[in-house]
């Protein structure tokens, strides 16, 4: 790495930040029609602040994607990926909070300029859609919007750009491949998933005994709990049986391939082992991003309900109905939220053979 050079020209705050351009970019539509609506300035600035943060999120995502989209991810990259995912999460928290600032505008104040904005809409936030697509929300995973897509609301250039992005592997695809490459499942005669199945059977038998011996349960409660236990058993069976898993995947219960989900379960079960600490944090980082996205969607729809009631959106969607559905459906890493189903208490985890345990450790013996 070469030494950093000294600057040769003096740097001036206003020029460096190009404030001339930035601060001359707020032009309320209402002014063009006579009386400037006071709150339109807030509306513009809040949206611009969002777009700036989206730019920063994309900057982080492109670097994460660059490290991830290869056949082998160098261990050295893992810390960087995790800290950049964390940064995206921190920005998202700000974005959620920012909704409170816009909510200081009342619906009546919004009506002073809303009609001037037709047909512009959040649908046309290309950076927002870029983030969604890069994370893995390609068209086939979106909700069916009035049998039409937001793509119809975009100009040719933006539409082509996003459609091209859809052709690339997303971060979801890269993470799936990375999880599928997980070694460690078999070591000599040891087959991890056989031992896991035995541990699960033992745990479920214990649970069954607890339910059957619980004198405080009425017959119907007991029946209910035993039925629930059978459902849990079915989930475990599906995880370990490729055919059953793929059937559930078709129904939309899982999105990761079975191999990838098994990799994620393994990381979660043995996350105390040194080698899995960063992979575990990485999965948590992705889960947090999904959770923050969902929280933002929910906060946005509540704000929209407050501003519009049951009016339709300027982009022509059904407004709150459409947005509420995206909250539930437009998820990226829902599988990571299902992982808890497959966890066992630490005390019930299969004992790993010694050489395998060693492989999961940082191993440094200078005398060898
Ligand atoms: C008064 C405040 C707001 C109202 C009433 C509002 C309303 C709406 C409505 C009705 C939609 C559905 C699409 C349509 O028919 O137009 C929408 C979508 C959207 N809005 Fe807002 N919005 C507001 C503020 C914001 C802010 C501050 C942002 C920040 C960037 C934002 C970003 C978006 C995005 C990205 C979408 C597309 C969501 C998707 O397709 O999943 N909105 N908005």
The ligands found in this model are: protoporphyrin IX containing FE
Quickly count the helices: 17
Low-confidence stretches: none
State the shape.
Answer: globular
Main sheet properties: 2 strands, antiparallel
Radius of gyration: 26 Å
CATH level 3 topology? Methane Monooxygenase Hydroxylase, Chain G, domain 1
List keywords for this structure.
binds protoporphyrin IX containing FE; 368 residues
Could you explain the architecture of this structure?
By secondary structure, the chain is mainly α. It has a single domain (37-359), classed as Up-down Bundle (Methane Monooxygenase Hydroxylase, Chain G, domain 1). The protein is built from 17 helices and 2 strands. The protein has a two-stranded antiparallel ribbon with strand order 1-2. A hairpin with a 2-residue loop joins β1 and β2. α9 packs across α13 and α11 (219-240) packs across α12. The longest helix is centred in the last third of the chain and has 32 residues, at 277-308. The chain is globular, with a radius of gyration of 26 Å. Bound molecules: protoporphyrin IX containing FE.
């Amino acid at each position: 790495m070469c030494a950093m050079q000294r600057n040769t020209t003096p740097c001036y705050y206003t020029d460096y930040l190009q404030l001339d351009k930035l601060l001359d970019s707020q032009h309320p539509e209402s002014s063009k029609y006579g009386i400037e609506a006071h709150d339109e300035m807030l509306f513009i600035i809040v949206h611009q602040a969002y777009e700036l943060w989206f730019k920063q999120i994309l900057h982080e995502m492109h670097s994460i994607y660059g490290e991830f989209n290869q056949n082998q991810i160098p261990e050295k990259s893992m810390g960087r990926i995790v800290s950049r995912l964390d940064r995206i999460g921190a920005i998202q928290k700000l974005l959620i909070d920012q909704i409170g600032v816009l909510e200081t505008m009342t619906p009546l104040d919004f009506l002073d300029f809303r009609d001037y904005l037709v047909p512009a809409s959040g649908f046309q936030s290309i950076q927002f859609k870029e983030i969604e697509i890069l994370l893995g929300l390609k068209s086939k995973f979106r909700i069916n919007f009035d049998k039409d897509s937001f793509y119809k609301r975009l100009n040719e250039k933006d539409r082509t750009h996003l459609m091209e992005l859809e052709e690339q592997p997303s971060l979801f695809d890269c993470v799936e491949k990375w999880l599928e490459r997980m070694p460690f499942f078999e070591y000599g005669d040891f087959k991890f998933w056989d031992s896991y199945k035995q541990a699960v059977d033992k745990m479920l038998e214990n649970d069954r005994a607890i339910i059957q011996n619980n004198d405080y349960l009425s017959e119907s409660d007991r029946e209910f709990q035993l039925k629930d236990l059978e459902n849990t058993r079915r989930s475990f069976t599906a995880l370990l049986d490729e055919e059953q898993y793929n059937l559930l995947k078709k129904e939309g219960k899982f999105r990761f391939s079975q191999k990838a989900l098994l990799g994620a379960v393994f990381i979660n079960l043995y996350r105390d082992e040194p080698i899995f600490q960063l992979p575990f944090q990485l999965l948590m980082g992705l889960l947090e991003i999904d959770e923050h996205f969902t929280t933002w969607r929910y906060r946005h729809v509540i704000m929209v309900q407050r501003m519009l009631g049951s009016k339709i959106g300027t982009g022509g969607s059904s407004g709150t109905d459409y947005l509420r559905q995206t909250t539930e459906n437009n998820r990226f890493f829902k599988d990571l939220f299902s992982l808890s189903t497959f966890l066992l208490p630490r005390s019930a985890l299969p004992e790993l053979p010694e050489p395998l345990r060693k492989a999961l450790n940082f191993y440094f013996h200078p005398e060898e």
